[in-house]
Design goal:
6 helices; 2 domains; M1 Pyruvate Kinase, Domain 3; disordered N terminus; alpha+beta; 3-stranded antiparallel sheet; 23% helix; globular; single chain
Length: 236
């Protein structure tokens, strides 16, 4: 799979996007009792945003959640209908905020944002940097085996933002596109990263993107090294 010209043609670029905002505290999961920050409530007042995201929003396992390159999570609201169709027994619980996201909107998904895009939320500036990697806690929360794997397989992941400029946001604020990156969409990037035998040149170009999260870049570089060691005619 090769990534073609990056530009902004070919996808809809909404400039102002209505959103809902969520934050939450650590709570035990229903099946395992393990602590999790996946439980979020809709914000009703202004919240400060720093390099680690919404101030007061909690993550239980800081080894794999939170931090500057997983500061704020957006989950596309449109994905919930797809999940409800696949897991009807969980449909009533699949509502905005329930995937642990900080931002929800029906106006954006992985096909409408590009790696490195810079958006404003209130007075903060956010940059798209990597997809979410769904984990077992999703299955535990919804008491529904296989949901996390389904999300990963169908790339219904949403994405993380890094915070470029600290600020404040409030309910009613909109996401506003400030700088459109000359880069692949998040959907294109995920397809390439998951391809069985991707173009090495395209994969290297993905790894070289300045907006990419360092953790994802390391994974791509490691895969590149493996592919070069095990190269066939179809992988160049």
């Amino acid at each position: 799979m090769a990534l073609r010209g990056y530009g902004i043609d070919g996808i809809i670029r909404a400039m102002n996007v209505s959103v809902s905002l969520f934050s939450g505290r650590i709570r035990p999961l229903p099946a395992s009792g393990r602590p999790s920050g996946i439980y979020k409530q809709a914000l009703t007042s202004t919240i400060a945003i720093d390099s680690n995201g919404f101030v007061g929003d909690e993550q239980a396992d800081l080894r794999v959640h939170g931090g500057p390159e997983k500061a704020i999570h957006l989950y596309p609201a449109g994905h919930y209908a797809k999940l409800a169709a696949a897991f009807p027994e969980c449909a009533a619980a699949l509502v905005a905020g329930s995937m642990g996201e900080n931002i929800s909107t029906p106006a954006l998904d992985e096909h409408q944002v590009r790696i490195g895009d810079v958006w404003r939320l209130g007075s903060a500036r956010l940059q798209v940097c990597q997809p979410r990697n769904p984990c077992w806690k999703i299955d535990d929360k919804f008491c529904c085996d296989g949901m996390a794997a389904y999300i990963a397989e169908h790339r219904l992941t949403g994405w993380y933002w890094r915070v470029l400029t600290r600020g404040v946001a409030a309910p009613g604020d909109k996401l506003e596109l400030e700088t459109a990156a000359a880069a692949p969409t998040l959907a294109e990037a995920m397809d390439l990263a998951a391809a069985h035998r991707p173009s090495l040149a395209a994969l290297q170009a993905l790894a070289d993107l300045p907006g990419l999260a360092s953790q994802w870049r390391t994974k791509i570089i490691n895969r590149l090294a493996w592919l070069k060691t095990h190269a066939t005619d179809g992988s160049t």
